[in-house]
Amino acid sequence: MPSERRVRHVPRPLAVRATEPFDTAEAAWFWVQRARLNRAEGARLTADPLAAARPCDPDDIVRAVQRLARAAVLTRRHLRVLDRHGRRLTPPDARLPEEEADAALWAEALDRLTGPLRRKGIVA
Question: Using an 8 Å Cβ cutoff, are 60 and 122 in contact?
């Protein structure tokens, strides 16, 4: 009987790098949106050695938003505003009459998102 060679798989250690939380939930949300746009364009996500390491993945923030939506803390109107302005990568401008309502919902949604993200260490 031939000797069987046992192959051992050992995970490679990840580079130890200090993480930096986001200053605001808005900054975290725009980071998620940029990652989603990059994924949609087929980009392979690799860490930028010059960018700040973040304490989460974009999906962690999306899951926090989904949990708030399931708990009815965020309404469909909040989600639509987050999506619409997130895709534009710019917050609604309360000075414009057509964006005044969106600006109020935007601020409310991000205020409600800040607590869960802060508890997870994603927002400072």
Answer: yes
pLDDT of 38 reads: 87
Tokens of 94: 């309360």
Distance CA 30, CA 113 (A): 13
Query: Domain extents for the chain?
Result: 58-124
Phi, psi of 60 (to 5 degrees): -65, -40
Residues in contact with 7: Cβ distance below 8 Å, sequence separation at least 6, in sequence order: none
Q: Which residues of 98-108 are buried (b: 16+ CB within 10 A; e: fewer)?
A: ebeebbebbee
Phi and psi angles of residue 19, each rounded to the nearest 5 degrees, phi first: -100, 155
Task: Render pLDDT for 41-59 as a digit per residue (tens, 0 to 9).
Answer: 876 655 555 567 888 999 9
Closest to 78 in 3D by CA, of 88, 63, 68: 68
Q: What is the pLDDT of residue 29?
A: 97
Contact 53, 17 (CB under 8 A): yes
